[in-house]
Amino acid sequence: MAMKTLRRLSSMVFLLGLCGLLSAAEASWLSQLAKICAEGNFVSAYADDLKRVGLEPLEVRSGLEHYRFEISPAFSRSVLIDVRVLPDGSADAVAYHVPWDSEPTLLPKTSAKRLSRRQIGHFRRLLEQGEFWSRYYFGWGSGLDTREWIFEGVRDTQHHLFSTAEEVPKHLELAGEYLFSTVVGGKIPR
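Now predict its structure.
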């Protein structure tokens, strides 16, 4: 709901700018405000999904390597994958099919899998090639079939979050698809 409101605000700013009813500075400021609000709504929705499936925020001080990937397709439930790297280099991964807001009593469907050192190594390489640890990008996309992608990770004392609903950088898209197919099976739904 909030995303639709922000898209409408952006469209309104664009139309008012075309009609000459907004100065360039006003249009720029309103556009930036819409982007900041949308980013806050993405992070807020992600935090709500974590609560819905019973996960706590990632702990940076733990010293453990930990990843989360959430894909929110336009026409189906979000899937959130939690990956905890173990001391032996393998990882425990749990996928949660997140209930919609309208289903507050529905328990999330889960599936779990142990990832080998080779599998988690491949996932890490894709994240590195996609420059996950240094990339900041946020975009809310457009169109009816927009998917929202969120990657979150902790390693050593570093925490990073990347979210977008626009085109995903190739190696991050490959990392998400690899993790999804390995833990859940199949392709990411639209």
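Strands lie at 66-72, 79-85, 91-97, 109-115, 148-155, 158-164.
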